Amino acid sequence: QQPVRIAPSILSADFAALGRDVAVITAAGADLIHVDVMDGHFVPNITIGPGVVKALRPHSHKPFDVHLMIAPVDPYVPDFVEAGADIISFHPEAGPHPHRTVQLIKSLGRKAGLVLNPGTPVSAVEPMIGDIDVILVMSVNPGFGGQSFIESQLAKIATLRRMIDASGRAIDLEVDGGITPETARQVVAAGADMLVAGTAVFRGGPKRYATNIAALRGP
Ligand code: DX5
Ligand code: ZN
């Protein structure tokens, strides 16, 4: 297993100073920049779109990990590619043709991720395990930062780790929601290698970001 990578979710950043926060978390040790895109339709919250991703892109040299919580997905994929997304992850429930969405993302030269909600079974990724680059396990129901980690997702992470290893493919296993130093330890033990964290990274303000990120990597 590779060393764990930390992807701060800018949903918990200072929205009046997003460019600064992206630069500061990069300097503080972030491995990727996680961007939560919500449409007020697929999830009950509205955040940002490709214009903001494009504006933020020059503020970090790290990969942009774009988590789309929108429906439909396909019409917006080219916009996020153009804006500078490196990984584009989406929820299979967002449309009737998730495999087509994977093909679209891959055809534009970006990494494709499938996101599993807490209520979505691991079987949703099986038909696409030969095509995807990332599996993102939601350990909260998507829509808001600051929610509590849902313990039942640990078994799902362990199952997905076995499926990925059996596939022989280089698929990142990412976990998003309620990640703290304590839950980070649990999900890494279960097989995760990429952690998304909003609250746990941004709490305390810019002077704390480096300490907060280091705490998620564990002792
Ligand atoms: C939830 C988002 C998460 C969220 C994580 O819908 O996908 O990325 O911002 O926030 P915390 O770490 O506060 O649970
Ligand atoms: Zn997310």
Automatic annotation (TrEMBL):
SUPFAM superfamilies: Ribulose-phoshate binding barrel
Sequence positions that bind substrate: S9, H67, G143, F144, G145, G146, D176, G177, G178, G198, T199
Cofactors required: Fe(2+); a divalent metal cation; Zn(2+); Co(2+)
PROSITE patterns per the UniProt record, alphabetical: RIBUL_P_3_EPIMER_1, RIBUL_P_3_EPIMER_2
Active-site residues, Swiss-Prot/TrEMBL: D36, D176
Ligand binding (a divalent metal cation): H34, D36, H67, D176
InterPro entries for the chain: Aldolase_TIM, Ribul_P_3_epim, Ribul_P_3_epim-like, RibuloseP-bd_barrel
Cofactor binding note of this UniProt entry: Binds 1 divalent metal cation per subunit.
Annotated coiled-coil segments of the chain: none
Catalyzed chemical reaction(s): D-ribulose 5-phosphate = D-xylulose 5-phosphate
Domain of life where this protein originates: Bacteria
Pathway the protein acts in: Carbohydrate degradation
Enzyme Commission number(s) of this protein: 5.1.3.1
Broadest EC class assigned to this enzyme: isomerase
GO biological process: pentose catabolic process; pentose-phosphate shunt
GO CC terms, sorted: cytoplasm
Molecular function in Gene Ontology: D-ribulose-phosphate 3-epimerase activity; metal ion binding
Record's keyword terms, sorted: Carbohydrate metabolism, Cobalt, Isomerase, Manganese, Metal-binding, Zinc
Family from the record: Belongs to the ribulose-phosphate 3-epimerase family.
Function according to Swiss-Prot or TrEMBL: Catalyzes the reversible epimerization of D-ribulose 5-phosphate to D-xylulose 5-phosphate.
The protein's name: Ribulose-phosphate 3-epimerase
Lineage of producing organism: Bacteria, Pseudomonadati, Pseudomonadota, Alphaproteobacteria, Hyphomicrobiales
Gene (UniProt): rpe
